[in-house]
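Much of the work behind modern protein science is quiet bookkeeping, done one molecule at a time. The protein below has been through that process, and both of its lines are reproduced in full.
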Amino acid sequence: MNLFSRIRGIVTIAVVLCLMLALAYPVTAETSPTVLMFDVEGNTRVPAEKILGAISNTKIGDPFDVRKVEADMKSIMALGYFSDINLKTEKMFDGVKVVFEVVENPTLKEIQLIGLTKVKQEELKTFFTQKTGDVFSAAVFRDDLSKALKYCRETKGLFIEPKSEGQISISADGVVRVELVELKYGKIVIKGLEKTKESVILRELSIREGDIINYNELKEDYMNIMRLRLFDGVEPRLEKSVIPNSYDVIFEVKEAQTGSFSFGVTFGQSDGKVGGVLGYSEGNLMGLGQNISLDLNFSESEQNAQFSFYEPWLDSKHTSFGVSMWNTDNNFYSTLSTWYPGDAKDYYIHLIETGLSLSFGRPLGKDTRGTVRFSFQRDNIPTGDILDSDDGNSVSLGDPALPTEFWDNSVGLNVTKNRLSYQDRNFVDGGYQLSADYSVAGRYLGGEFNYQKGTLEGKWFHSFSPNLVLGTRLQGSLVSGDYPDYDALYLGGMYKLRGYADQRFDNNISKQLIGDQYLLSNTELRYRLPSNKSLEFVVFYDAGQINNNIGGGSSFKSDYGIGIRYNIPLLGVLRLDQAWNTDKGDGNRLVFSLGEMF
C-alpha cells in the first residue's frame, strides 16, 4: 500500500462522513440515530468476521458517533488488507445500519527483497507468514519484515533497514518489492588514549570505514583489543554518522598500568628455605605495544639475569619478533648419570648457562598463532665444584663420558589458540586457550645432546557471575632422548603443584616428582570483591601424576589451599597462596609471587 493510497483513504473517510452528516442523515446530539447493525461490502477473500472484529469503538445500541466511526475505519485499514475504505449508512427501523465498503489489496504472488549482499533473501523469506494467493496485508508484512531484520541483527550482526521507511506497496500483479539498505561503518573514533598510539588499536581491527556493519566482527575486535592486556576497559558503541546510511564506531578505552616490578618468594614452613626473583617489565613500551623485561635473581645459590624484548607487529602481515638473552649461575642438587653412567647419586653441582633465543611468529587463522623459536645455549659444569650431597665435601668423579662444557641448541614450534575474555587487564572471566609446544635439540644444531620435548596445555574459564569465575588448567608434558639430568621434568613448585618444594632434590618426596612425562591439573575458584576489584579470593586444588626417573613407576600427588590476590599499582597482581599437600611429614607451603597461577 503506497503513500498515495493511504492519503486517498483518509480523504475518502473524511468526505464520506461529511456528506453523510450533511445529506444522508442529520446527526446532532439530539437526533443521533441508534446503531442497530454493522455490515461489510467489497470483501471477497478477507472474512467479514475478521473485519468486524476490528470494530471496537462503535457499539450496537449506542448513538451514532462520528469520531468513533472514524476510529473504527482506521482500525479496519490498520489490518493492512485494504487499499481503500468507504462508509455508508442505511435507515433500519428507528436506527441505522453502518456499512463499511472496503477495497481489498491484490493477492500476494512474490516477495522481492532488494539490496542484500551479506545474507540471501531466501533465508529471510522464511520469516514471512503470508503465502502465495493470500490477500496482501501491509501490517502483517511489516511485522514479519521487522522479525527478519531483528534476526539479522541478533544472529548475524547485520544492521539492515528499509530504504523508504513505512512505504510498503504491492503491485497490481501481486509483487511486493522492498529495497533494503545494509548500514555501513562511518568513522572509526578512539577515545581515552594517553600513552598508547592509535595504530596499536587500529591494527587489531578487522573492520574498516565503509565496510558493512557486522556487530559480531566488532565484538571479536573488542576481544582482540582486550587480549592485548594494555587496557582495563574497552567500550565500543555505534553512533549515527553524518555519512548517509552509516554509523560511526566509537571505542572508549581506559589504559592500564603496564609497567610493573615483579618478585616472587616461596617459604617452606617445614624447612625454612626461602627463594624468589626480582624484576621489571613494561608491556607497552613507548605506547607501541612492545614488551621489554629484565629479571634478576640473587640468592645464596643463584645469580641469574635475563633480558627479553617482544615486538608483536614487525610488519603488515602481523609477524612478531622476540629476543631473549640470559646468564644463569646456579648451585643445586642433581644427578650426573649422563656424564657418569651408572652413578645414580645426587650431587651439589655448579651450572653456568649463557644463551640467546630468537622467535618469529605469524597468524595461522582466527585467534591462532604459530611461533618458531631458535635457542642457542652454552652450558658449563665445572667438575672442581662438584660437592657430595651428604657431607658437602668436594668429590672427584674421574673423567666424564661427555664434555661438561657444551652447547645445548634447539629449535621449537609453538601453536596457540587464544579465545580468553577479559574484564580488565588482569581478570579473566571466560573463554579458553589451547597451546602445543614442541622443541628438538640435536647435534645437527651444534649441540651435544639429541632429545625432544613436547607440551600440550589447555585453560578454560567459566563465569558464574561477573565476579565469580572457575578456572581450570590441564597440562601434559614429555621429554625423550639423550638429555642432561637437570633437564628432566619436575612437577613441583609454585607454578605446578604449589604444595611441593621448588627444588627437585629438596627431600625424598620432591624426588618422586622428577620424571620424563607428567599430567597436571590445576583448578581455582576465583572471587573478586565487587566493592574493591583489586582484591580477589581463591580456593584451589592441584593434582598431577609423573613417571618417576629415580624410584621407577609413577607418582600421583595433590595439594589444596586458599589464596589471596591483590592488584598493587606499579607492582601488579600479588599472589599469596597457602597450600597443604597430601603427604604426611612434608609440611605445608606459603607461596608468594606476582601474577595469577595460570
